[in-house]
Amino acid sequence: MFRYIAIAWDPARQERAGLAAQLDAQWERRPQWKLALRLPGLSVYATGTLPGVNEAQEFHDGLGGLLGKVFRRANLSSSSSSSSSPARDARLTILDEARLVDSQGTSLVRDFWGRYVAFFPTARGSVCVLRDPTGTLPCFRMSHQGLTLVFSWLEDALTMLGERAAPVVDWDAVAAQLQLGALTGRETMLKGVCEVLPGERLDLRTGGSELLWEAPRFAQAPLGMAPGDAAAQMRDTVQACARAWASCYDTVLLRLSGGLDSSMLLSCLREEDTHAHVLAVNYHSPGSDSDERDYARLMAQRAGRELVERERDPDFRIERVLRAARMPAPVPYIGWMNGASDAALARAHGVAHQHSSAGTRASTGTNTSTSTSTNLATSAHASNHPTPAMFSGTGGDLVFCEFPRWWPAADYLDDNGLRPGFVAAVMDAARLGRVSIWTALGHALREWIRPDAALRETGGFANLLSNETRSRAPCLSRFAHPLHREVSALPIGKYMQTFGLMYPIGYYDPFEQDLAPELVNPLLAQPLVELCLRLPTYSLTVGGRGRSLARQAFAGELPVQITNRRSKGGMEEHLKAVLAGNIDLVRGLLLEGALSRRGLLDRRTVEILLSGRPTTLAGAPAQLHGLVAIEAWLGRWAA
Q1: Which pLDDT belongs to residue 163?
Q2: pLDDT (tens digit, 9 = 90+) per residue, 284-334?
Q3: Mean pLDDT of 528-546
Q4: Which of 140, 489, 78 is closest to 273 using CA atoms?
Q5: CB-CB contact of 8 with 205 (8 Å)
Q6: Which residues contact 353 (CB under 8 A, 6 or more apart)?
Q7: Which of 145, 226, 321, 336 is a plausible cystine mate for 632, CB 3.0–4.6 Å?
Q8: What's the sign of the alpha-carbon dihedral 142, 146, 150, 155?
Q9: CB atoms within 10 A of CB 160
Q10: How wide is the angle at C-alpha 339 spanned by C-alphas 334 and 344, nearest 5°?
Q11: What residues contact residue 8 under an 8 Å CB cut-off, 6+ apart?
Q12: 256 — phi, psi (to 5°)?
């Protein structure tokens, strides 16, 4: 589990330098932690470093340092065309380091991409931290007696400072989370714990900051490319990013749902494309949309990769959420409910592969035998070798535009006005949104003339909140991204895409922690995000199908059943089963917990939804799980 923690202070203040020295000495006694960088007024420690995967690179002549993994943009084309990509060995040269400091981080954002944080001095004698534009590696900060701690894992900061310095819950932030669904700005749900935003450079002494990467800037500069050219560039970029990440690992597990996004990733990782040993993993459960094994088998066979099938655990216990690691905000645990299975499978498969002969590869096709899974689970802790990576197609819906709405017609008007192409855009939008042509036309014209702010309200639990909570809204702008106004000015479809891509995805498994495989989401790589932000929504959905440009880009790489697939998998039945299996605990948490005691929830509505009786009240199982996550998080801090 790769983590870092930094101590920053003003070396001219003797009392602060003395406290920093005490914390330094404390951390140097921890054998698993290594000093990664030391500058005047800055000490940075890291653990879990691994050559070629997560490194601690100290710059020459005291110019700073970088933690994580970077790839050089100039190598993207070679990464997509050859398995002998130089991406794995990409490091900053002395010239790169000097440019980084001279540009105060701009050259790093422009010329490289990856998963990283960088520390470097300023011309005024201070020090800065820069978080990469994808925000993959978490970056938080908190102050303590004149010092600033910067860290990826809050439990490390709590260990360093002691429990008496633990932050407290910010109830205004809790109310904002309930209404917004997520806090996208610098404030977290803990007082005094702030997030360094993706692409942000922060001065650790003055607190001044600047966003060196702005998603709206790309969305505001649409590319006028022919569909064929756009599809080719999209394919090349996906392949380059996927293969660059695969070049870092000897073993890759890939969550293969059988949908378009994960299938595209697997198509990039055939045996001739990467040296990594790749195992596809499919999770399934009973339900009309929850079993996609037929599609996953088709794709695994097409790619020539082994497939292991696992049933989602219907006996997942909510008690695990109550014991999760303390985080600055609640963890949406739905995405981590298979974490134990992932950890055992990844560990065992990595061990099995590393003990096999160099020329041996697992047989292609499908492997679902009970004996294989038992052997893998048994050997899960048999070695201290690093676990493999877990690749996921997360982010594909946003990047490639899977929005079944009429929005692209409005976007076309905003970009081009009433040109002849608008007719085709309206027809595509009507098909995409499953409305009549006249309905799509009317909505697009109204949105063009007078944008509807209500359409831009996203997420939240509004239907489950008390009237008092909805009417007594805190200052929500405090918890919004500083570029919220710029994003809101985008046309509706591009707004929805851009807004979703500005919020970083979770990196650490709060349950398995050190045992979990490292999560990699290649479809959220910076070069691909930038490209798709610049491609208009009416280009991404040309023909009136969600992700139609992505389908065109990979039509020759996927089985036709997947390319033309109209259904989309889900977990609704599984989420209902988990709720039913934990119903007594869930009722106690939501009806008697802190949210209800403070009057934040509409207790009657929640009670009806948890009664098991048929009801017309709105409230999806995913929302109830989201409330459980918040309540469990509050319980961890109350404890």
Answers
A1: 82
A2: 988 767 888 899 999 999 999 999 999 988 888 999 999 999 999 998 888
A3: 96
A4: 78
A5: yes
A6: 250, 251, 277, 362, 388
A7: 321
A8: negative
A9: 18
A10: 165
A11: 41, 42, 127, 147, 148, 149, 150, 204, 205
A12: -105, 95
Assign 616 a pLDDT band (cuts: 50, 70, 90): low
One-letter amino acid of 19: L
In this structure, what are the phi and psi dihedrals at residue 558, rounded to the nearest 5 degrees? -120, 155
Residue that the structure tokens 């309930």 belong to: 178
Q: What is the CA radius of gyration of the chain?
A: 25
Backbone angles phi, psi at 234, to 5 degrees: -65, -45
**Largest separation between any pair of C-alpha atoms in the chain:** 72
Beta pairing, strands 277-284 & 306-311: parallel
Q: Do the Cβ atoms of 531 and 233 come closer than 8 Å?
A: yes
- Burial of 222 by CB count in 10 Å (0-12 exposed, 13-18 middle, 19+ buried)? buried
Nearby residues of 112 by Cβ (< 8 Å), 6 or more positions away: 70, 71, 72, 73, 90, 92, 96
How many C-beta atoms lie closer than 10 Å to residue 486's C-beta?
16
Amino acid residing at 618: A
Write out the H or E segment, with its range, that includes residue 278: strand 277-284
What is the sign, positive or negative, of the torsion defined by CA atoms of 140, 164, 40, 123? positive
Q: How many residues does the chain have?
A: 639
- Quote the DSSP letter at residue 275: S
Question: Which secondary structure element, helix H or strand E, spans residue 366, and what is its range?
Answer: strand 365-366
- Which residues have C-beta within 8 Å of that of residue 419, sequence separation ≥ 6? none
* pTM (two decimals): 0.91
DSSP 323-340: TSPP-SS---GGGGTTHH
Whole-angstrom Cα distance, residue 610 to residue 602? 13
- Tell me which DSSP letter residue 62 carries: G
CA dist 396 and 381 (Å) reads: 33
Whole-angstrom distance, CA of residue 124 vs CA of residue 130: 17
Higher pLDDT, 314 or 65: 65
Cα dihedral 129, 131, 137, 139, rounded to 10, equals 50
- Where residue 78 falls among pLDDT bands split at 50, 70, 90? low
CA-CA distance, 531 to 533, in Å (whole number)? 6
- The torsion of the CA quartet 486, 490, 495, 497, rounded to 10 degrees, works out to -100
Q: How far apart are the first and last CA of the chain?
A: 25
